[in-house]
Amino acid sequence: MWTDDEIKGKILHKLTRFGKFDASHTAIEHLQKGFPKDMVGRVKDLIRELKKENILFIKHTSYGEQVSINLDVIDKVMFYIDVFLKKP
Are 24 and 63 within 8 A, CB to CB? Predict the structure, then answer.
């Protein structure tokens, strides 16, 4: 079973691997990929939490909402990624 922090870590790890910082954005729908289908609702809720924590930047476009990592809170980002990477 995944904890909320592990899921947040996986989401942020994916964004860092693809270099989605500041001006480089990706669609929110891409962040749900790689999770089991029964977890998608929980993943969406945690993406909203990451937005509230100011970890994810939001960019509204004509083709949907895009996100990237806020480098001003890199300590929080690294905390969540570390939790994910240490998952047994």
Answer: no
Provide the pLDDT confidence category of residue 67 given band limits of 50, 70 and 90: very high
3-state class (DSSP) for residue 81: helix
pTM tops 0.90, yes or no: yes
Q: Fold for domain 4-85?
A: Arc Repressor Mutant, subunit A (1.10.10)
Give domain limits for the chain: 4-85
Helix axis angle for 74-85 and 4-17, nearest 10°, is 110
C-beta separation of 5 from 81 below 8 A:
no
CA dihedral 67, 70, 76, 77 (to 10 degrees): 60
